[in-house]
Each structure stands twice: as structure tokens, then as C-alpha cells.
Amino acid sequence: AQSVAQPEDQVNVAEGNPLTVKCTYSVSGNPYLFWYVQYPNRGLQFLLKYITGDNLVKGSYGFEAEFNKSQTSFHLKKPSALVSDSALYFCAVRPNTGKLIFGQGTTLQVKP
Amino acid sequence: DGGITQSPKYLFRKEGQNVTLSCEQNLNHDAMYWYRQDPGQGLRLIYYSQIVNDFQKGDIAEGYSVSREKKESFPLTVTSAQKNPTAFYLCASSPSDTGNTIYFGEGSWLTVV
After folding, report:
1. Are A102 and A4 in contact (CB under 8 A)?
2. Which of A39, A40, B25, B80 is most exposed, with minimal Cβ within 10 Å?
3. pLDDT at res. B8
4. DSSP assigned state of A4
């Protein structure tokens, strides 16, 4: 079965430190890969996506993600975390055929 | 402003009632979606529509119904057959259903009282 895994329920990082939120997937073919962020009681906001090309994708709010085909991973990164980055982050994968598959979400907590 | 508007933000349903959640988009998107979000379970697809007057069931369609009479509108009815309807409901849209980015509305909370 096709799936997306976010292995950490929560990631804690100090403000100013780099952050990584992990995502791995099990999908055949060459899927499209996405990251979304959700603030409390709000909808999901699109951060970035990978379709093809450069493995490092840059997105909104200083976030970037690195695609690794051999490891079937698409980890979200930011060089310097802000307290305002604290939110729920979702990785999503869209197979060549089929609908978008979401991971379970990872709560990012950035402490001052 | 372009976007996806969901209403109401909060809705309370009594046992045995049907309720309808509104979703309107002015992005000229062909595809629209309804997702349900429960704590710790991510998002699950209820229904989706690729074009006006056509829609398909998602992973958890039982107890829900939709219509797509206009391109801009994709209302979701939560029927009395849905035994556990308390959740956060998210409407979304995309230019087409072939890999484009999906954009979300602000969500609607439904609570059974």
C-alpha cells in the first residue's frame, strides 16, 4: 500500500537553531511531493513542492526541502528556526495516478 | 481577494440532524475536495470533484454527500448516518486533478451536541 510516514510526532528546537522535520514515503513511480503547515484552528498553508529537477526545493518563510530518491525521503529544513514557526507540519505525496496522501503530521515546537 | 471560503466556522449538530458545510472558491479551479481531520490522524479524503456535475467518493465517504452544481461551489452534507461526525472539515481546490498544488480553506468545526 502507498503511504507517507512522518516518524516524529513532535520536534523540539531552540530558536535560532536549524530544524529538520522528516518525511519518508512508499509510492511507486515519480510522485509529486509537498509540505504544508497548519496553525491552530486554521487550514493548511502550502509551503513548497517537488516535481522534478534540483533536489533542494526552496519555499515560503525560509523553508526548504531536500528530495532523496534513493532513500524515498523529502525532509523539511530551515537554517534558523523562529518561535513563530511553531505549528503542525504535513508532508504529502501525490502518486502518478491517485490522490494526495498525507502523513500524520509533526508538531514543531520552537522555544525562545 | 482570491481564495477558498468555508462557512460556518463552527457548527453544532444534534443527533439525527443533517448539516451542510459550505465551500466556495473564486480561483477558477476545476477540482475541489473535502477532507476530514481528526487529532493525530492526519487528513482523510471524503469526496472530490474534478469537474462540474461530477464527483467521486474518497476514502471515508459513508455518511456524507456532496453536490457540484457550480464550478465555484462544493457543499458537503453530513448526514445522520455519519455516526461520529465531530471533526474539523477542510475544503480544498486545485486547478486540475493532475498533480497541481491543492489549496485549502480555513476549515469548519462540527460538533455533535
Report:
1. yes
2. A40
3. 95
4. E
